[in-house]
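Dear support,

I submitted the protein below through the web form. The confirmation email said the job was done, but the results page showed an empty box. After a refresh the structure appeared. I'm attaching both so you can tell me whether what I see now is the final result or a partial one.
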Amino acid sequence: MDQPNSGGLGMRSRGVARLGAGAALCLALSGLAGCAPTPDATPRPPAPASAAPSPRPSVPEVPTVDASLGNVPVATTIAPARIRLDRLGIDMTVTAEGLDSRGAMALPPNAADAGWYRFSPGLLAQQGATVIAAHIDSSHDGIGPFSRLKDAAVGDQILLDGEDGSTAAYTVSEIRQVGKIDAPMAEVFDQSGAPRLSLVTCGGVFNSATGHYVDNVIVTAIPAPRA
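What the results page shows now:
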């Protein structure tokens, strides 16, 4: 993807030495930030005062329980720490990443490492897409393992190791290479629906004029049946 030191999901390794801060991102995540509706600035008239207080409604009897946080079950998110796709020789450390200053997914600077979008589900989640992305290459460490994603095949097994020592297995169900303008990022980052794994990197032709690849490679995998 554009040069990692510029904060994007790719690179400009073909003879471009300057790392521009304006390099475009491979994943267009503007929908994840700045999308809250603008508050209505129109002042509203005050509600008319009541002539007499309304009668208090009767309160139904409810069970008395301890409502402390210690009694509320909280779903545990298991962060991925390593991803493996043995057939393609992919074995990468995974680090948790959030959003950069432009509201797009941040990535590790090295193409040898992958980033897990920490606002997406973790291992063994019951729904939604666990998103892992990486640069396709880098000016200082060359071609990255995710450059091989385009060669994935339906049925390939992907293993995710969690930071707690657990391992989750996934089976590749779909491989797509699409132009960045048409890339279905809302689907890739969807946190609803069946649990799945979304892997993303750049691909296609490298445009030396813009310093970016023209496509996204997207691999979708579903949880493998547990033995």
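Response: this is the final, complete result; the empty box was a page-load delay. Helices lie at 185-188.
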